[in-house]
Design brief:
Blueprint (H helix, E strand, L loop, with lengths): L2 E6 L6 H14 L3 E7 L13 H9 L5 E5 L1 H4 L3 H14 L4 E6 L5 H12 L1 H12 L5 H13 L12 H15 L5 E6 L18 H11 L11 H14 L5 H13 L3 H4 L9 H11 L3 H8 L6 H13 L3 H5 L7 E6 L1 H10 L7 E2 L8 H21 L12 E2 L1
Parallel strand pairs: 1-2, 1-4, 2-3, 4-5, 6-7, 6-8
Antiparallel strand pairs: 3-6
Helix pairs in contact: 2-10, 4-8, 5-8, 6-7, 13-14
Length: 402
């Protein structure tokens, strides 16, 4: 059986995701679609609107055959590390291709871009340092250095100001750098841009626009045309039980407590907290009644919103630099759910996987898996404190079977 892999967050699963899944399967002539999905905390350093089990159900009910979890160490990392973990897992579970959505829509410009940056690596790094020295952020420095190199390139290269192009490039870079056999392919992103608000004249909207509509309107009626029926039903189920969808504002009292219970010096132990920012974090937490107010006080040219949110994720979950460093090598494939078709694939191929397939969490000393369990427990605690309802942890929840 042939498998195509996709890297996802499904926050939440919408009609654009459905299109991506179906196109990935059709264009690769695959028998199964395997999604490697972030857990309860995401790459931009924020909690998912609903937990990973509801998002797994959304995927399985809409064309995905197997969902595996991207470990916390990778799914909360910067784009390079995020991509490295995701693509390695898709190769480990036997995918012959991985398919990503992009604004570019064709694969050759991505390959040209990789060749350009690889062949001018020293010059590229020197340009990055040059731009960083001017005081602009590291992501902006990367982009400016790339644009300067790109002017001298004859072949068609990608626009790295577009968010899906950026992630797609990192997937390809990871596969090439690690000498993986898995082959890339890209599906054109249609209608809605990554950050666009919802457009009532369309049935496709970005996850960002959908989340914004949910939080601003406090109603699911605004998004009904943009998500499959199964997604709508699962969102309704969550809302009926847990009252609110999850964002940092939901967790703010507990995040604030996590910051203030430590001295500034103690905060520097947590992953991604760089020297100097700890004093600003403590000072702003004392003054802020909301997450948005807190972020407004600490955001600067040096510290982007996403970079700060990643720090705060690690402070909230209590994960230190040392723990994250000790969890940098993949050691398992964590199964979150499967369809009958997915189960048939696993039965046929799992003996060939280079990593163990974990379907139930038992007693473990694996440092990477312990971080996943900790992250799930802290997410569940935040949901419980906000809604008064218990949410199952990793020990209590078996893989979903459809």
């Amino acid at each position: 059986m042939k498998a195509v892999g996709v890297v996802v967050e499904y926050n939440p699963f919408h009609n654009g995701h459905f299109y991506h899944v179906s196109q990935s399967k059709d264009r690769s002539n695959a028998d199964v679609v395997i999604a490697v999905m972030s857990g309860n905390f995401l790459q931009r350093g924020e909690p998912a609107v609903i937990d990973k089990w509801h998002r797994t159900k959304m995927a399985l009910k809409n064309g995905v055959d197997i969902v595996i979890e991207l470990p916390y160490a990778f799914c909360t990392g910067h784009a390079t590390f995020f991509a490295e973990g995701a693509i390695q897992l898709l190769e480990a579970i036997g995918c012959t291709n991985f398919a990503f959505g992009s604004e570019e829509g064709t694969i050759h410009p991505f390959l040209n871009t990789f060749t350009l940056l690889k062949s001018h690596e020293e010059q590229y790094n020197a340009l990055i340092k040059q731009y960083v020295s001017t005081g602009i952020s590291y992501p902006q420095s990367l982009f400016k250095a790339y644009e300067e190199l790109r002017q001298k390139e004859q072949g068609h290269t990608i626009d790295l100001s577009k968010p899906n192009n950026i992630l797609g490039y990192h997937y390809i870079e990871a596969a090439k750098r690690l000498n993986l056999n898995i082959e890339p392919m890209t599906i054109p992103r249609i209608q809605a841009g990554f950050h666009d608000d919802i457009n009532t004249e369309s049935t496709i909207a970005s996850a960002t626009g959908i989340r914004k509509a949910i939080f601003e309107q406090q109603s699911l009626e605004e998004i009904v045309q943009f998500v499959p029926d199964e997604t709508y039903m699962l969102l309704e189920e969550w809302q009926n039980k847990y009252i609110s969808f999850i964002q940092w504002e939901t967790f703010w009292p507990y995040l604030r407590f996590a910051i203030l219970r430590h001295t500034p010096e103690q905060l520097t132990r947590f992953a991604d907290v760089s020297e100097g920012i700890e004093f600003a974090l403590s000072k702003a937490a004392k003054k802020s009644n909301s997450f948005n107010q807190f972020m407004t006080l600490i955001k600067s040219k040096r510290y982007t919103w996403t970079r700060l949110q990643r720090m705060l994720t690690h402070i909230f979950t209590g994960i230190t630099k040392e723990q994250l460093h000790n969890s940098s090598k993949l050691s398992y494939i964590r199964l979150l759910g499967m369809t009958k078709n997915g189960q048939a694939y696993l039965s046929k191929h799992k003996k060939q996987f280079p990593l163990p397939l974990i379907s139930r969490v038992a007693s473990t000393n694996d440092p990477m898996l312990l971080l996943d369990i900790r992250a799930t427990d802290m997410y569940a605690l935040g949901v419980e404190m906000a809604s008064g309802e218990l949410i199952a942890g990793d020990y209590q929840t078996p893989p979903i079977r459809l």
